[in-house]
Structure formats: C-alpha cells, structure tokens
Design brief:
By secondary structure, this protein is mostly beta strands. The chain is built from one helix and 15 strands. It has a seven-stranded antiparallel β-sheet with strand order 2-3-15-5-11-12-13, with helices on one face. A hairpin with a 3-residue loop joins strand 2 and strand 3.
Length: about 180
C-alpha cells in the first residue's frame, strides 16, 4: 500500500485486505496495518496523524493506532467515543457504525496531546502514560489491538506529519469547513 506523497508504504503483516475505489481499504478484525515512518519522521516528541476511517463495530474497545512502545494504548474508540487509552482524553461526539470519521491526534514538543474529530479539537491534555505518547519511529500499528481489541472497517486515508498541526491546519487537512456567518 504505497504512499501518494512519496512517504513510506503501509504494510499488512497480518493479512491483506481488499481495496474498493468507493469505500477504501477494507481491513478485517486483527488484520490491521503497520507503518515504518522512520524515513520521513525523525523526532518522537512532536507529530500529527489524521485517519479517515469507518468502523463496523464501536462497542467495547476498538484500537485505531498503537505501537509496541505504547503497549497497546493509544487512540481508539471506546463504547462509541473517540479516546486515547488509558487517559482522560475524550471526544464527546458519539461515534456510530457505518459512518466515516476523520480521527486526528497531535503531540507537541511540550507533551500536549490533542484529539480532533472531523477537524475540530475535542480535548487537550498532557498524558503521563505510555511515555506521553512519544512516537515509536519504526512501528505504528493501525486498526489492530494488542489483545484482540479491534474492529473490521474501512480506511480511505492515513496521514502522518513530522509537525504539530494547529487547529486551523487540522481543520484544513480534514477538508471540513466552518459554517458561514450571516
């Protein structure tokens, strides 16, 4: 699964899914994707990720992104809510099956992690668990939990930046627009 911008390819070490031009890449439960982003991301302490994903199941814990360094923690859907496990970082907007959501996460050099849903910031905090979510440079795992906590679904796009996107940049990257004032 090659990058459209010349970045590293996504690998499917647990089994390939199917690509559909309308729906995106279909992944099955526990058959997620892995990324070795070390060729383009050189620093662990600040980064941004944006994923355009539709999950088949949103009950229980459904991992969106993790790494060995984080020991299975990270951005996830927990009982229909976008969270960072095991922190208090939460988006209150309900997540439903059958809909695409743009899940965004940023980390600043001073350890602030912010969750974005469809381009809008939900919550910012300074988590202490999982080494404050410094990026593991050779092992980002998408849509596969460490202990079976995943859901089948579709992904249309995953973007990773070696910079912390601000709210305006995340809104633009999410291709969302604020309502016009009258």
């Amino acid at each position: 699964l090659t990058s459209t911008t010349g970045g590293p390819s996504l690998e499917a070490p647990w089994g390939l899914g199917v690509i559909n031009s309308d729906s995106g890449y279909r992944f099955q439960k526990e058959k997620g994707l892995e990324l070795d982003e070390s060729h383009c991301v050189k620093k662990q302490d600040y980064w941004s990720v944006l994923m355009n994903v539709k999950l088949d199941k949103v009950d229980g814990y459904r991992s969106l992104m993790t790494s060995n360094l984080w020991k299975g923690n990270g951005p996830a859907v927990l009982d229909g809510t976008f969270v960072v496990k095991p922190t208090a970082l939460t988006c209150l907007e309900p997540i439903r099956t059958g809909y695409y959501y743009k899940y965004g996460v940023t980390r600043t050099k001073d350890d602030q992690v912010t969750l974005y849903l469809n381009g809008y910031p939900c919550m910012t905090a300074k988590p202490t668990s999982s080494k404050g979510f410094e990026l593991e440079l050779e092992n980002l795992i998408f849509f596969r939990g460490m202990m079976g906590e995943s859901s089948p679904g579709y992904v249309k796009q995953i973007q990773v930046w070696q910079k912390t996107l601000n709210a305006k940049e995340m809104l633009s990257a999410s291709e969302c627009k604020l309502p016009q004032e009258s």
